[in-house]
From TrEMBL:
Family statement drawn from the similarity comment of this UniProt entry: Belongs to the KRTCAP2 family.
Keyword Transmembrane: yes
Entry keywords, A to Z: Membrane, Transmembrane, Transmembrane helix
The keyword Cell membrane belongs to this UniProt entry's keyword annotation: no
Lineage top rank: taxon: Eukaryota
PANTHER family, alphabetized: KERATINOCYTE-ASSOCIATED PROTEIN 2 (PTHR32001)
Record's protein name: Keratinocyte-associated protein
Amino acid sequence: MKKQNLKASNTSSLFVSIIFSILIVSVLQIFADLLRSNQYLLILAGFLSSLIFVFALVIAGVLCKSMGWKVNWFFIIFCFIVGNTIAVTIDGIAMTTCSLFSFVELYLLYNLSKKVY
């Protein structure tokens, strides 16, 4: 059986990440009052904000690759700040959980990139 190449193109990754980022930020801002009402929903808001970190990292990775650069710590920290800025608009607890989820997701992305590349 022939192995299939399931890699997405750079442009499709860029557009999907932008669309999901906008969608998540919109949902977080529309339901901000509801998310503040319960501690479990604050954790969910932090998780969704950490997905903003991942999508921002994908966007930065695609843009850096198109310019011939490598993603370094500056881009990772910038994307981390973007995700936490979105989370802090909800609550401080959401920012804390966003940070924790972002560290875990960064670790998983690092291990995945070591296996793939």
